[in-house]
Amino acid sequence: MNLLIVLGVFIAMEGATWLIHKYVMHGFLWILHKDHHDHSSKGDLEKNDYFFVIFAIPTIALMYFGTVDSINHLFYIGLGIMLYGMTYFFVHDVFIHQRIKYFTNTKNSYFLALRRAHKQHHKHIRKEDGECFGFLYVPLKYFKMYSNSAKK
Amino acid sequence: MVLFFTIIICFIASFDKRILFHHYFGAFIKAAILVAVSFIIWDVFFTAKGVWWFNTDYTLGIVIAGLPLEEWLFFICIPFSCVFTYFCFDKFFKWDKLSAFNNLIVFFSIIVCAVTALLHYDKIYTLVTAIVTIAALTYLHFVSRADWIAKASLIFTILMLGFFPVNGVLTGTGLANPIVNYNPGDFLGIRLGTIPVEDAVYGYTQFLLVLYFFKKFQNIQDEKSK
Known about the structure:
heterodimer, A: mainly alpha, 6 helices, B: mainly alpha, 7 helices, 6 strands, about 5% strand
């Protein structure tokens, strides 16, 4: 049961990320997110900073209230968010931005599609334009693009 | 005293041609003293409050502000060994790619520290260690944008090989009575061998801060000599 909560929250977080990214980051908080798209300010970690806060604060709160009396479901919800956050940083920093060469030559079509979708999102520099707001979920067309080429 | 053995090897090796750490002794001393001042204030305060105390059977008997002389030297000797180790690894291995893990490590550490601090706010050693660690990581990661946190964390993990025997003896491994004693009400009570888990986190933060200032002074020195 607890494992299911963790798993469910993990999946829900992808949806939440999509919503936050599309309607908040590209909505009323565009001002914070703008520099990530047009590189108008120096440094390269700006966007991650907000994700950091978005993931960390609820996790800390949930984990605290989930253990203060006895361990309950809130703790597992927090755990799900934390694991999603960690996966996000791992995939984003290590894989998409290819800071470790080990993953560069992958032939796995999911990973290739993931990287492609992330790039596609970054092609647009204006608030209104945009596609591929999700993170781990990749639109099917990119996935097909690579699974077809893998077969050739 | 136990402490002196920790630095002798590093001290001699500092003059090795391949390492040339002795060029940066000045930078190290400045960094160590800067960090030591705040950590000694913390130490004096905790000793005065009885969070921990020292068994003087094992020390020379010279006590300044409640701390044995050896404890004062500890704030120079231990960072010296740690920064020296970092300096060597950094010189011989290309570990810069580890910066990809900075976010992950800082994220995880801050959550663990924050949750622990909230749950155990009544235990002063746990609380202060967690707060100082969160503050240090937040500053290094978001303000000074240090790109070496993951690298330093890995090297600190390697340094645990030295930390365990040294701190183990201090906290009572193999001795009739521990040299450093802790008030059970002030820490989590989780011990790695005889070492309270807070000591390891305390050491980690101290290491990060000394390293931060060391790098700062090292850069200033390199700029000048250009």
